[in-house]
Amino acid sequence: MEKLAELSNIDYRQLSYIELGQTDPSLCTLFTICKGLDITLTELMDAEELK
Fold first, then answer.
1. Cα–Cα distance for residue pair 16/2, rounded to 1 Å
2. Which of 4, 34, 39, 45 is most deeply packed, by most CB within 10 A?
3. Distance between the two ends of the chain, CA-based, in angstroms?
4. How many CA atoms lie within 13 A of 44 on its CB side?
């Protein structure tokens, strides 16, 4: 998670809060995380892929 936070250029604690469901990420934050993961927002939100 630390590496993703670094790649996404967001605070490690913010990423942790998102993962734990303690906060809801903004669309901008989701886009930033996607850039860190090198995926599109569509890929992240694809419910079929999550099953």
1. 9
2. 34
3. 22
4. 15
